[in-house]
Amino acid sequence: MAAIKTREIQYTAQDGSTLIGYFAAPETDVPVAGVIVAPEWWGRNDYTEQRARELAEHGYAALAIDMYGDKKVTTSSDQAYQWMMQTFEDPDTIVNRAKAALDTLAAQDEVNPEKLAAIGFCYGGKVALDLARSNAPLKAVATFHANLSPKAPAQEGQVQAEILVLHGEKDSMVSLDDVASFKEEMQAAKVEHNVIVFENAKHGFSNPLADERAKANGVDLGYNAEAEKQSLAAMYELLARQLA
């Protein structure tokens, strides 16, 4: 694994919110492909930062992005829901904040701005998908147990990324009907995409803290180590292919 460096980067979204990203990159003099990491509804927490560091160890520059402002985080599902819903009040908030993060990532000296991707977990999956639907210059998007509902359905010619959706069969928050609707949306817009459904995997399957959060908040989450392993492998395969 590559030696890495990390730092926080403050940036401002179009709505004036002050956002603080966590940047990780390999120690190299050559600009590398960049990936934004959109967080679960808990905010830009240790888990999101861990995923950014792992990407850096694999040779990518990564920015764990802040969607709530001032890097707010919580372990309370009630608070997370409140913050998440605030980003839905104006239909442009999610894309504008994600685009500000993508622009910030692309502007870093360590990043090749011609090779950009986005990954997202849970709420962050919606962030990454809506960013892709907005014609952002992304070559790849991978989502883990994502909210798949669009701000507006993808339009033909407006999605530049190849999209990979990693979903749990037993996800009670995003149903298999939702997955079917997403596939129809992608097919109608002629978007290159792939959906992998993991058996016996619940919402939150990629997060080792999912069971703890489920118990504390009374929500239907569950960690699945095998699904985590397989989904990350699929993501890295996509990134290697599209960002080479």
Automatic annotation (TrEMBL):
This is Dienelactone hydrolase domain-containing protein. GO terms for molecular function: hydrolase activity. InterPro entries: AB_hydrolase_fold, Dienelactn_hydro, FrsA_esterase. Coiled coil: none annotated. It comes from Acinetobacter variabilis. Pfam families: DLH (PF01738). Transmembrane segments: none annotated. Residues 21-241 form the Dienelactone hydrolase domain. Gene3D superfamilies: alpha/beta hydrolase (3.40.50.1820).
